[in-house]
Amino acid sequence: MEKSMEDVAAARFEIISPLLDASLDPVLRIEKQKEVSWHCGKSYRTIGRWLKSYAANGFAGLKPSKTCPKTVSALPENYAEILEAAITLRRECPSRSVRDIIQILELEGLAAKGILSRSTLQRHLQKEGFGLRQIRLYAKHDAASRRFAKSHRCMLYQGDIKYGPYLPIGKDGQKKQTYLAAWIDDATRFVVGASFYTNQKVDIIEDTLREAILTYGKPEAIYVDNGKQYRSNWLQTACAKLGIKLLHAKPYHPEGKGKIEAFNRRLDSFLAEIALQKPGSLEELNHYLAVWLKEKYHKDPHAGLSGISPETAYLTDKRPLCFPDIAACQEAFLHTETREVDKAGCISFDGQKYEVGLKLVGRKVDVCYDATWKDEVEIHHKDFPVFKAKRLRIGENCGQTQLFPEATQPIEAKHSRLLTGLDRQSGKAHKPATVATSFRNMAKELNAHV
């Protein structure tokens, strides 16, 4: 499936996000940009161009511009031999650039001067597994992980999902698994968002992250694992729109998320107590979780904070909190799907019908919605202003739907304009020619004079 422009912009933001730190020294910024370049497989100049576009136009500057398709140039007949020689040159010296490889091939007479394209050769080298980034990864050896901690609150939130207790909230009182979605502040170990849910969908990430941002402020970055909930296009786009760096831990390296993992272990004591309390509903379970966090976890001394409590560490931090604009936050947390309007002026969405109007019949519209509240959705179409659509309420009696606009109704024709036009054209084409002299008329005239 082809990526939308917003998905591409979100992916580009994720790449350049490590370079947006204003405190970076110019020299360190150059080195960091080089590191980002080979890590993502993009050129240094491309990364620089994205940074300038983001600085000038924000998130919109990262959206790709529409370009005309390029013509495909034919490769030389001996390109397989040239590629094999290029791979050998790369293996001889892994740091050798594609430009230098092309120059060597030209000097040795393996390729005519100017016939090789740098981008084409680079693409083929990457396809064969000999790109510069790939070569460096081959030579890289895993090192021991180092502990890290941010210096101030709201610099980094760590998120995770943990299995919760079973509750009798299923059909006919059957036990149902619950799941905890939590966010913890890296510097202070303060839990900024945590709730139990009955599913592991991306909606629970959205709900708790929005609660954390609106209550405790927007973080500079969030750090999560590689679960499908955290790899969603929605989370990537939402973070890009809010200017939050989205960081993912290395696969099979849970030590990078040590703080949230330590909180999960600490939460086991709460799960042991809640098993004795036997809550009968999800609301009751979340109530006791909030009480335990407020009166127990946040007030207990923390070994990682030199013996002070997470609450004290959070409240005494002098870093000012940054809250996003409400409208911008609401827009960032919207999901978008495409639907086609049926002949009744409705769309089918989430198993329900929504009225959008007859003016959009047969057209495709973008449906923007909040995953936690779907009674009303936003309808976007390039030819009409944005408007709200509500769920279709089905009454007891059928009713006459509004008529289509008069301009769309058929009109009565007096005759077939096609056949009339063809007949007129045929008459002009076969019009009989005027005869200059008629012998019959001449004979009649002669008899008349005899």
From TrEMBL:
Q: According to the lineage, what is the superkingdom?
A: Bacteria
Q: Name one Pfam family in it.
A: rve
Q: MF terms per GO, please?
A: nucleic acid binding
User: In the record, which residues are listed under signal peptide?
Assistant: none
Q: Which PROSITE patterns match?
A: INTEGRASE
Biological process GO terms, please? DNA integration
| InterPro entries on file | Homeodomain-like_sf, Integrase_cat-core, RNaseH-like_sf, RNaseH_sf, Transposase-like_Mu_C
Residue span(s) of domain Integrase catalytic? 148-318
This chain belongs to which protein, by name? Transposase InsO family protein
Which source organism does the UniProt entry give? Answer: Pectinatus brassicae
